[in-house]
Amino acid sequence: MNKVKYYYNTHTLKYEKVEVSISRKAYRIFGFFAAVAVFSAIIISIAYSYLDSPKEKRLKREISQLELQYDILQNRMQQMEVVLNDLQDRDNNIYRVVFEAEPIPLEVRQAGFGGTNRYKHLENFDYGKLMVSTTEKLEQLSRQLYVQSKSYDFLINSVKNKHKMLASVPAIQPISNKKLKHMASGYGMRIHPIYKTAKMHYGMDFTAPRGTEIYATGDGTIKKAETDRGFGNHVVIQHGYGYESLYGHMSKILVKPGEKVKRGEVIGLVGNSGTSTAPHVHYEVHKNGKPVNPVHFYFNDLTPAEYQHMLKISSQANQSFD
């Protein structure tokens, strides 16, 4: 029941009932609801500024997960780029050298293209820069892989047409890994064992017990089988296609000039003849009359792990054995 209010009328000296007009009642109700609306708006504004709604919290978690996935994707693409660069380097400096093919130019391998901005539609997003950089990297890797794939197609055709050449290329180690102690010295500037000065070492020294068998590293014809002061008892094989290989410091030569040999055939025994400080074989590879690093020619003889280990020890600056 509504409470009745009275007031004292000083003119009539009586208590009279307070009568409130409908318009005044409506004004009061409107004022109450207006105050509630303003107060609610203030509360909601503060809440939206400092407190997240359940939907906003869910969206923020999704954004965080997307950013994490983008970071993982970027790391994987970097790993792919490292592997692809290694494949490209081997393709240009090993495989194409073997098949006497010109290396693929860098601008072709990068497979870049100009023109209009192909990613403009992504720039208006909140994370547009991240999306554009990731998309560009993926497309670049895709194009580079396509170029590398076409290069391997070319090499496959070269293999089919060059069986004889492949058999002739010096592609194994001159001493079996089972009897190989270690690779003593690699190609490059090394300390001479006698003169103790830096001198260019044009081959690789493989130490092994005296009498260990030395193998021809490719098919060919014996060009030299002789003795001199430097390499001692040594053999030179002419493989054709511009390749020759030299095997020095043998204790015994088992072939003669003009003799035909096959890859893996025994041509001599490890020794210490000539200018040598310990039993080993000094091994060189020449292409078109110029010495080249033999470490690039063990693709028929080593696993990837063994090859990486060979690269590491062959690059060490140490003393040669001859």
TrEMBL record:
Where is the M23ase beta-sheet core domain positioned along the sequence? 199-294
Does the record bear Acetylation in its keywords?
Answer: no
Q: Which Pfam families match?
A: Peptidase_M23 (PF01551)
Report keywords, A-Z. Answer: Coiled coil, Membrane, Transmembrane, Transmembrane helix
Q: Which residues form a coiled coil?
A: 56-90
- The molecule here is called Peptidase M23-like protein
PANTHER family from the entry? Answer: LIPOPROTEIN NLPD (PTHR21666:SF286), PEPTIDASE-RELATED (PTHR21666)
